[in-house]
Design goal:
Elements (H helix, E strand, L loop, with lengths): L1 H22 L3 H19 L5
């Protein structure tokens, strides 16, 4: 349950960062958002977070 909430929060933050970076034509927030998506993917593939 908590794992799903953490993953959902990371994905929402990642989407927001990508959107803000794209609308502001800034590369660092886009890269941060992509990094957050990668982290969320790796945590999803892992059996347990804690």
């Amino acid at each position: 349950m908590i794992r799903n909430l953490i993953l959902l929060a990371i994905v929402i933050i990642a989407i927001a960062m990508i959107y803000l970076g794209y609308t502001g034509s800034m590369l660092p927030p886009i890269l941060t958002g992509v990094g957050f998506l990668l982290i969320a993917y790796l945590l999803y593939k892992r059996n347990s977070i804690f």
